[in-house]
C-alpha cells in the first residue's frame, strides 16, 4: 500500500488535512518555516498551531509564463485564513479572470502531486472555492 | 562644516541592447561621463561605490582599472533592485561621515535577453525518493504548486491585494498605467523602448501573470548610470557654473522590511516604502505637494499603482482615483515616470537607482529637452528591491 508524505512539513495529512504554523510564544507571530528567532519580537520559542482551513482570497494572479517544469497556467494567491495569510494555489477552478475573484471564499484541499520510485505519494494542497 | 550633499555630475547610458559592451565598459562609459559632467576627475574622488547584481562581484576594482586606480576605498554593493540607490547612498554616507568630500557611485547591469526575473530555480524531478529538505521541509519543487516565485506573479498579487483592500482596480486600469509610461518614453531618446503603445495593444499582448501582460513588465536591458556626489562646503570652492548645475540631495533614505503579518507570505512592498517616503519628506522639509516630478519603481504596472499611495502622492486608499484623475501623466498635476519608467525606459537592475536620479536631475537642471517638466524645482526618486530594500531620494534645484 502506498504511503504518503506532505509536500511541505507544515501540511498535516490525515482525516482532516490542515496547515500548522510555528507560532511565536512571545508575540503570536506565525511562520510556516523553521525560525531561529521571531522576526517580530526576537523570542526563540515557538508552538505548532493549526491554521483555519477556510478563508478569503485576498490577492491572486494567473501565471501564464513560468520557469521550465512549472505547468501553466495556474492561479497563485494569498488566502486570509482567519487572520493568518497563507500562500497557495487556487485549484478546482478554470484559471481565468472570469472564474477567480478577489474576496472569494475558499477551503483547503489536498491532491496527489506525484509518486516517487518507492511508490510514496507526495500530497500537495491548494484552495478550492467553498461553494463549488 | 556643511552637511549639504549635492550631485555634481551624473549620467546614464542609453538603455537597451549593447552586445559590443561588457559590464565594465558600460560602467566606465557612465562613470567617465558623470565625471566630465561634473568637471572633475578620478583624482578628486575619495570613495567609489559600485553596484552590480548579477555580474559576479568585484565590479568596482575592475572599473578602476579602466578609468583610474588611485587607491581610494571601493565598496561593491549588491542590494536587489535597490542596488543603484544603495551605491549612491554609500558614497553620500562617506561624505557625511567626513571621510572625503567627493565620491563616485556607479550602477550597471547586462540583462538583455535575460528572460523572466525571479523565474530561476531548477525544476526538480518528481522521481527518485521524496525527502524533506530546506526550511519548509519540501519534498519536491514548490514553485507553481504553492503559489509563484516569479516576479510578474508576485507583483501582480501586490496590485490585486491593493484592489481587494480599496476597490476600483481592473485589468484595464493597470494596462492604462502602462499606456502612460509607454507614451512618456516616446520623448526619451535613452529609453530601451520609445514606441507608443495603445491600450488595446497592451491588453492584447502576451499575458505573463494576470493582470500583467508583457509590456506591463519591466523591460530587461543593458545599461549603466553614475553620479558624482560632493559636500556643500567643497562645492562652494568650485566654479559658479558647477554650482549652478549642481542638484541638492535634500533627502537620502534607505529602509528594509519591518515585520508585518503577511510579509513572509507575499512581500510587503508598502510598509517600507511608506516609511522611506515619510523619513525623506521629513529630512527634506518638503511634502508630496511640493514635488514637481516623481520617478518611482514601476517594475510592473501593478506596482506603480501601490506606490502612488506608499509615496503619499494621494490619500491612503486613493491611488485608483489619483490615476484616473490624470495626475501622473506628464501634463498632470504630479507627473510620474516621465522617463517611461521601468516598463518602457528599461530596468538594468543596478543602474535603475541612479538612472532615476539622473532623470530628475535632468529636469531640475532644465536640460530635459522635449520632455522637460517646465519649472521643475523638486523631485523624488524611488526604488525597491524585493527582500526588501527601499531607497528614496529627494532632489532640489540649486538656488545659485
Ligand atoms: Zn514573536
Would you give an account of this structure?
- The complex is a heterodimer of chains A (132) and B (400).
- Chain A has 132 residues and is mostly beta strands.
- Chain A has one domain: Beta Barrel (OB fold (Dihydrolipoamide Acetyltransferase, E2P)), CATH 2.40.50.
- In chain A, 0% of the residues lie in helices and 49% in strands.
- Chain A contains no helices and 10 strands.
- Chain A has strands at residues 4-6, 11-12, 18-24, 30-31, 46-51, 54-63, 74-81, 84-90, 105-115, 121-129.
- Chain A has a 6-stranded mixed β-sheet with strand order 1-10-9-6-7-8, with no helix packed on it. In chain A, strands 2, 3, 4 and 5 form a 4-stranded antiparallel β-sheet that branches.
- Chain A starts with a strand and ends with a strand.
- The model of chain A has no long low-confidence stretch (mean pLDDT 95).
- In chain B, helix 1 crosses helix 2 (59-67).
- In chain B, strands 3-2-4-7-1-8-11-10-9 form a 9-stranded mixed β-sheet, sandwiched between helices.
- Chain B has a single domain, classed as Thiolase/Chalcone synthase (Peroxisomal Thiolase, Chain A, domain 1, 3-Layer(aba) Sandwich), CATH 3.40.47.
- Classes of the chains: A mainly beta (132), B alpha/beta (400).
- The structure holds zinc ion.
Main sheet: strand order of chain B: 3-2-4-7-1-8-11-10-9
* CATH fold topology of chain A: OB fold (Dihydrolipoamide Acetyltransferase, E2P)
| Helix/strand/pairing category of chain B | alpha/beta
Tell me how many strands of chain B there are. 11
Which outline of chain B best applies? globular
Supply the CATH superfamily name of chain B: Thiolase/Chalcone synthase
Please identify, by name, the CATH architecture of chain A: Beta Barrel
CATH class category label of chain A: Mainly Beta
Quaternary state, please?
Answer: heterodimer
Question: Within the largest sheet of chain A, what's the order of strands?
Answer: 1-10-9-6-7-8
Write the H/E string of chain B, N to C.
EHEHEHEHHHEEEHHEHEHHHHEE
**Largest sheet of chain A at a glance?**
6 strands, mixed
CATH topology of chain B: Peroxisomal Thiolase, Chain A, domain 1
Mind telling me the CATH class of chain B? Alpha Beta
Q: What's the tally of helices of chain A?
A: 0
Q: Tell me, rounded to a whole number, the average pLDDT of chain B.
A: 94
